[in-house]
Amino acid sequence: MKTLHKPVPPGGTIGIIGGGQLGRMLALAAARLGLKTYIYNDAPDAPAFQVTGQSIAAPYDDLEKLAAFADACDAVTFEFENLPAHAIAHLAEHVPVRPGAQALAITQDRLSEKTFVEKLGLKTAPFFDVTSAGQACEAFGKLGGRGILKTRRFGYDGKGQAKVSSADEAAKAFESFKGAPAILEGFVDFAYEASVVAARGADGGFAAYDPPENDHENHILRRSTVPSRLSAPQVEEAKMIARQIGDALDYVGVFAVELFVAADGALLVNEIAPRVHNTGHWTIEACACSQFEQHIRAVAGWPLGDPVRHADAVMENIIGAEVEAWQSLARTGALHLYGKAESRLGRKMGHITRLKPLTKP
Ligand code: AMP
C-alpha cells in the first residue's frame, strides 16, 4: 500500500471515481495545477472522459479493475458518495483515498449522518429510524405534525422522499420504498435554504466559502446566490458548523453542509455532501481558488487555496431542454456546458454564473 507523506507533485495522477460534471470540473482544475487525472466511471459516455488523459468504464464493484486503477494513481477521490463500502476499503489497500472510508460511511446513510450531527450538538430536524410500516406510524405519532419519509441511502434530488401528513400516509410511503430502511424527519418550515462549502486539508487546515442562498424547483437546485440573506454572525456560525463537522470526520477534501434557515434565524443541518457541490459552482468565477481546485489541492496534499470571494454571484443550473438556448445564454454570463449528448427531463446539462461587483466584503 502506498502512503502519502508528501504532496503529489505536478505530473502526478489523481484518480477520480465518477465521470459526471463534477468529475469533469475536477479534472479541468487538476490540469491547471499540472496534475493528471484518471477517471473511473460505470458507463462509457461520461462527461469527464472528454477532458482527461486516462479513463476506464467498469462497474463500481469490479475489485480487480478498481485495484489496477488505484495502482496507476497517486491518490484517489470521488465525485459521488455512493460507492459500496467494500469497494472503498479495497481501494484504500492500494492507494490513499480522500476523503476516507469513515467520512463516506457516515454521510452515505441519513440515519448515521443525522445521529453524528446531533452528537456534535448541532441542530437538525427531529428524526426517527423507520424499518417497518408499523414503525412509520409510530414515528409519525411522535412527530406531532407533518413529516418527510426519506430512504436512508441512495437518495438525491428528491428521489426516495415522500411528504406525509398522517400516520397512514407514512406507512404507505414506507411500503412504496419496497422495504428500504428509512428515516422519518419532521417537516421544517424554513425561511430559506443555504449551504456552506468548505475544505479541510491533509494537515487539518480549513477554508470555507461564503454560504450561498439556494432555491430549488422540483427538488432540483435552480439557483445559488451570494451573498445570501444571512447576517455576518450567521455566516460565521455556518462556517463554524462546517469546521466542527470537518474536524470530527477527520475529513480531507471539499464537502458541503446544506442548511435550513429557520424564521428565528436558527441554522439546522439538513445534509452533508462529502464532495464538491452544485451550490459551490459559482466559486469558479467569483473566488481566488474554486471549490474544484481546492478539492484537488486537498487530495494531493497541497496547501489549501484562498477561498475569498471577489464578486457577488448568481449561479443558475441549465436543466433539460433549457440547454437549447445556449447561444443566447452565452451572451449573458460565464457558460459551462457539461458535454452531455442527450438532454433529458430534469438532467443537469450545464450552469451559468453571472457576476456583479462585491457588495458585502
Ligand atoms: P435532501 O435530499 O434531504 O437534501 O432534501 C431535498 C430538499 O427537500 C431540501 O433541499 C428541501 O428543500 C426539502 N426538504 C428536505 N428535508 C426537509 C425537511 N425536513 N423539512 C422541509 N423540507 C425538507
Count of structural domains: 3
* CATH homology superfamily name of the largest domain: ATP-grasp fold, B domain
- Strand portion: 25-35%
Q: How would you sum up the global shape?
A: globular
Give helix and strand order, one letter per element, not per position: EHEEHEHHHEHEEHEEEEEHEEHHEHEE
CATH topology of the largest domain: D-amino Acid Aminotransferase, Chain A, domain 1
Based on the coordinates given, report the CATH architecture of the largest domain: 2-Layer Sandwich
| Cα end-to-end separation | 45 Å
Number of strands: 17
- Overall mean confidence score, pLDDT: 95
Q: Largest sheet at a glance?
A: 9 strands, antiparallel
Using the CA coordinates, give the radius of gyration.
20 Å
Q: Which CATH top level class of the largest domain fits?
A: Alpha Beta
* Low-confidence residue ranges: none
Bound small-molecule species: adenosine monophosphate
Helix residue percentage: 25-40%
- Summing up helix and strand content along with how strands pair, one would put the structural category as alpha+beta
| Separate helix tally | 11
Structure in a nutshell:
The protein has helices at about 20-30, 65-70, 85-90, 100-110, 110-120, 135-145, 165-175, 230-250, 285, 290-300, 325-330, and strands at about 15, 35-40, 55, 75-80, 125-130, 145-150, 160-165, 180-185, 190-200, 205-210, 215, 220-225, 255-260, 265-275, 310-320, 335, 350-355. With about 350 residues, the chain is of the alpha+beta class.
